[in-house]
Write a structure and sequence with these properties.
Blueprint (H helix, E strand, L loop, with lengths): L1 H27 L9 H8 L3 H7 L3 H21 L19 H8 L1 H8 L4 H19 L9 H21 L6 H13 L14
């Protein structure tokens, strides 16, 4: 009997959290996060303030819960190409294994919303910090004179910059195209480039 009661309570908690999360995201399509009140969230979710505070201490904690799930899935996607190998051969990665692109594709609505919100700087910081931490801890490069931390920073900014551009463009290209281009860009090291316009002196 006690187990059944706990299961009912667990389901109730899950339902209320889902409703509160969906309510916040829906309201964020209409107004900035900083202007949203807890009263608006609970009314939209058809709950009361007591239910809110039994789950979250603030609206920031609610949004943080949403983003934590997003970051958790982002990290899983980042690890996917190398989690089952001893040596990570970057130049041999098939485009389809770049699951960060699939992660974004699965979450287009929330990424588009957050990219337009006043919470964007925090989102970018969280994504970058999370990926940098695991990249520094889990990927070991040969000691060939390249600073590991600088190399990681350089690559993460490139990858995330491309992803953010894709989101801001309204997903102009297909996920498969972005995956393919990302793989090509990672390994592309041109030795020279033509200059289209000469500076006149």
């Amino acid at each position: 009997m006690h187990d059944k009661t706990n299961k009912k309570e667990d389901r109730r908690i899950i339902r209320s959290r889902i409703a509160l999360r969906e309510a916040l995201l829906e309201i964020m399509t209409k107004k900035p996060f900083r202007s949203i009140s807890i009263t608006e969230i609970v009314e939209h979710a058809n709950y009361n303030r007591g239910t809110f505070y039994s789950n979250y201490e603030s609206k920031e904690a609610l949004l943080d819960d949403i983003v934590n799930d997003l970051i958790h899935d982002l990290i899983k996607s980042f690890r996917a190409p190398y989690e089952d190998v001893e040596v990570f051969r970057i130049n041999e990665i098939p485009a389809a294994s770049v699951l960060i692109v699939e992660h974004v594709s699965r979450n287009t609505a929330i990424y588009s919303l957050l990219m337009k919100s006043d919470w964007l700087p925090e989102l970018k910081t969280r994504m970058y910090t999370s990926l940098k931490k695991i990249a520094m801890e889990e990927i070991i490069y040969p000691d060939d004179g390249i600073d590991h931390e600088l190399f990681t920073i350089y690559n993460l900014h490139a990858v995330l910059g491309l992803v953010f551009h894709w989101i801001e463009s309204g997903y102009k290209h297909s996920p498969a195209y972005i995956q393919d281009q990302l793989i090509k860009l990672v390994s592309w090291r041109p030795s020279d480039a033509k200059i289209s316009i000469k500076t006149m002196k």
